[in-house]
Fold each of these.
Amino acid sequence: MRIAVLASGFGSNLQALIDQLHAPPEVPIEIGLVLSDRPKAYALERARKAGIPTAIVRFRDYSDRRAFDAAIAEQIERHGCELIVLAGFMRILGPEFVRRYAGRVLNIHPSLLPAFPGTHGIRDALEYGVKVTGVTVHFVEEEVDAGPVIAQVPVFVDPEDTEETLAEKIHAQEHRIYPQVVLAVAEGRVRVEGRRVFVEPEEIR
Ligand code: GAR
């Protein structure tokens, strides 16, 4: 299955997907496109190094969200991608896009949703003072950070943690579980029943 990875920044999750899924011949996945809304995103550099086609779709080049979303969809279609993996993509995709690709858009978020949605999940959890936070991978639906949860992993907050050390622990978990989830979805091992998601042969955690 050909997948598109959408990223706005550093691209460490993209790198984990490249390292764990893109190369091995036994994995039925090819990253067919890395798309970014930011021309300087390091994620694009990672894609180029791996020989993966890239595209830049800048929000300000379009009159509104619908036109921006349509340009992204056009790239996805052009590259024949069937699954869309958001990896630090910091733009909200509109309802039409989400409906068109229903059940085929995944996102990773650095907290245990529904706690601490938004763009600063790690900092917000630390500032709130929770003792456990973590990582969530979910299907994208119209409401932001609210689709059915596919996998969650807890990360303990230690007394000496700073935003940096907590981020390190969270990213390590992200890089471990996101490729596993993408593979499970691509292999048809993920079933959705209402809000609940079931992964065969066993949950990813
Ligand atoms: C990741 O920690 C991801 O969970 C987060 O952005 C980071 C991207 O890092 N996403 C969100 O906060 C979405 N709301 P990366 O570019 O190194 O993969």
Note: Residues 7, 9-13, 87-88, 108-110, 119, 121, 171, 174 surround glycinamide ribonucleotide (CB under 6 Å).
Amino acid sequence: TRMEDSGVFNAGKGACLTIDKKIEMDASIMDGRDISAGCVGMVKGISNPIKLARQVMERTDHVMIVSDGVNKLAKLSNTHIGRISPNQQSLNKYYDIKRNMKKRWKKNNDLSFMALDHNNRHLGTVGAVAIDKEGNVASGVSTGGKWLKMSGRIGDSAVIGGGFYADNKSGAACATGNGEYIMRLCMCKYACDQMQSNNALLSSNRSIAVLTKQFGKNTGGIITVDRKGRFGVAYNTHTMPVASITSKDEKVKIAS
Ligand code: GLY
């Protein structure tokens, strides 16, 4: 929730805008003890979609709830949530991107406008993987999706095995980047399968190697934790800010 509230990332307050200048977010959470999961998609006007994903996992017998259903769940479950709407900074960015892309639409004459912009900019989904002293793993992710996406588009952050996965038998993984590519590769499930016999770093590297081979560079990144508590990070973008903390650390370690 802190990352959603910061406004710095493409999630919560900082979420990107759809082609209709609206915020529509996706978020999910998964518990490796029993592979239970909660996913929310097309979340509108709510500051912390991850809280609702948790409600889906813990308090319903569903796995995924989208659109207005998420707002209803917030009411039914009495979840404390703030309200958000597009701020001036996001609107400025929206107009900036749109100006830039109009020229491309004319040239390309198709509807794949969002993918055209994605390769170099605005990768900012947030996520976390964790392990406790009993070896229980978990993964959580939250995103605004892609700038200028069509309304109704749902990305990898709401899809189990795509943008996140957690299973005590292997480990936990969480992804950022181009959701369409990540989903098609079931990248986080692939990373967890890799962790059945490899450490977190090697599994992360292999996952990003597969992503790069299939779709090229500047397409995504992944964080993982394996059953032994080792963390892994890999990405094919220029940078990807990462932070880690253990029960022994006094301060969060930040790298990029
Ligand atoms: N990885 C975020 C998205 O594409 O929706």
Note: The longest helix spans residues 88-108.
